[in-house]
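[audit] Reproducing an earlier prediction to check determinism. Same input, same settings, fresh worker. If the tokens differ from the archived copy the diff job will pick it up downstream; this log only records the rerun itself.
[audit] input (332 residues):
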Amino acid sequence: MSNSEIQTQLENLQQEAQNSITSCDNLKSLEELRIAYLGKKGQLSQILRGMGKLSKEERPVIGELANKVKEKLQENLENQYQKLLNLQIQAQLEAETIDVTMPGVSRPLGHKHPLNSTIDKMVDIFVGLGYTVATGPQMESDYYNFEALNTPPDHPARDMQDTFYLSENKLLRTQTSSVQIRYMETHEPPIRIVAPGRVYRRDTVDATHSAVFHQVELLAVDKKLNFTHLKGTIKEFLRQMFGDDLPVLFRTSYFPFTEPSAEVDVQWKGKWLEVMGCGMVDPNVLKAVGYDPEVYSGFAAGFGVERFAMVLHQIDDIRRLYNSDLRFLRQF
């Protein structure tokens, strides 16, 4: 092949390649063109194989021309690559553009259920008075739920609480008083604890009763505690909970694990509503955990959280707290 023929082929290759590169509209095809023209087996390599038949004087001339053609094609490929890449990025940006003038999709934040907020408020008050939070299992043994609380198997007080019994002498706790026994077994006086938790009783569900509800138990054991300390603590708690204007009534009552005992009512919607039971810890309960009742005394109280929530938020039916009705829950 002569010098002039190779020059013509190189010039034709450059013109053909430039036209193909300029008209290419995607990056994949552009890469295929690069391989077709400049690859090891590409058209430029094929043309240059004919240089072996040229004279020593002609080879540098053809070599210089071939390098210029190669550089020009590489420049064309790089320019077209940047052009196509910019177009691709622009198309992607346009497809993913967010119109900030459009109204947003509202995702309202959740907030506390009125029962949880009521428990938190109760616990915060007692923690502020120097009490420690204590918890215990919801599935209890008969011993912790009844016997250690001065309620043996034949005690008539068991009829006061219709219990959910399980297998193997287990039951669903009817009161969080069981937490008091567990705590006293592992701690020495003086102690002051508040025990929030869920409890279970086979009650008939109505406007003021539920089979599953929540309690907050209060226990203080120390030397020389008396009923005046209990009454003052309860009044201060109720004052912080509801304010100074809520009428409060203490009524004599009976519980097997406190003596003397009382029930506490608050005035709600024109009538008295029982919200807690309380009393001085019975000496037998102190003996059951190894405390000397001649040295230590204590007081305890149990609050119905649902009742407090009803008074606090003026709720007329306890069942509203469990219906998961958003129209109701959004008020809190």
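[audit] rerun output stored. Observation attached for the diff report: The CA atoms of residues 140 and 171 lie 5 Å apart.
[audit] end
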